[in-house]
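Incident log, structure service

09:12 report received: a user says their structure output differs between two submissions of the same chain.
09:20 pulled the input from the user's history:
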Amino acid sequence: MEIDRSQLQIKIGNYATGPSTVLPNPRWLGYVQNYRRTASARMIPLDREGLRHRMPNQDYHVSRKIDGEFTVLIVENGQVVSLNPGGKVRVGLPFMEEAATLLKNAGVAGTTLIAGELYVERDDGKRPRVHDVNRLARNPESLAQLQQLKFAAFDAVVWDGEESMPTYAQVWERLESALSEGKLIHPVETVCLNKTKAVLQQFESWIDGDGAEGIVARSEAAGIFKVKPRHSVDAVAVGFAEGIDDRSGLLHDVLLALVRKDGTFQIMGRVGGGFSDEQRRDFLSDLRDLAVESDYAEVNSDRVAYQMIRPEKVVEISCLDIIAETTRGGTINRMVIHWDEGEGKWLTERRLPLASILSPEFLRFREDKAPSAEATGLGQLTGIVEIEDTEKTLEDLQLPKSEVLRRVVYTKELKGNTMVRKLLLWKTNKEELSEIHPAYVLHYTDFSPNRKSPLNREIRVSQSKDQMEKCWHELSEKAFVRGWKEHGA
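09:34 re-ran on a clean worker, output below:
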């Protein structure tokens, strides 16, 4: 495996990181992202009660869920690197050398991709958290610290050149056979059980007894279950939607937000489960009294727009899981909105990283709490998952202003009316700081009062200035023909 080391950033000793382009096989990132996406789609999330009532008696491989960074280990020709869905490559970690030795001793010579969790073994004995991985792997302070980074293997994407195996039992047998003697790399702790009651007892032992994050139970017959304890979150109700058709007159769901450090509100998600029909009728009436205007708009699953409300009511919900990144390793961005008390309306700010809540359930309105960063803040989530920029205010995160590069306006008289065509090209100066902003934007406006639709617009975006210049030339030749007079530039 020939790695392009010119793109690697040395952290300490032999440990270095880089983008997926350092790898010789461009398909590997696709393998990793596809595995993560497929595995997430197949996994059925449950809580303790769901385990009791929805998991049938079957043969299960029950694994302790580790709170680490999902990573795939790539082994080829005796060399080992890791790759996560976000495209981050790591080389030179101590567990990788151990992995190469163990697999060689097991007779595994072909290309092998092993899925697992990169985690930190903490000195205080507490369960690992993904925060620890990000902190240590990003900026290790010593070579000794790297020994704390371990890898718990739970599946094989490719094994010894073979891309699929008939059953998970065979996968597990190979992982156990090859890696069970490892100290820094090892199979995730797993037991084989065949009764739902036994799975529940194992869940309670690991979660209630050891404080583990959860369990994953795999069955050839029943599927894959992720079982975790539910989390409780206090959030602010900022909008509501009414039911449609035979559910008209009943509350459909409530739009929720958390309060940031600077007093702005960040949309967290929505809750539509856990209400009785009586509550849906009463709450709808109460929330209607709080309706206000809003520059921000969002629709629910029925494509019904939320009616925004004054930020006065605090809602306690429970959720099965909190996810802070996409299956490709990107951030989950949510809109930040601002309540203008003077105008009595919501104003839109910008999107910032937050998280997704899975299987939310309404518990109660918290009359004893008021919206605040302390009572309904982001800290409720950051204690569970790592979220970028939560301590920063919008002022800290102000994006650079755009810069107009070219602007021309042409007019033409026809039947006593003035037609206008305009081209405007600008550089956003935001492309390196925001994933939603392109580098360049070209805007074409065509106004003709004689047409059925007087105003037409066309927008083109690109990361390349040369490409934008070509688009400018093409639109100019098409739009500014004979009879059109340049009016201003």
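09:41 both user submissions now match this output. Likely a transient worker issue. Closing.
09:42 reviewer note: The chain has a mean pLDDT of 92. The radius of gyration is 28 Å.
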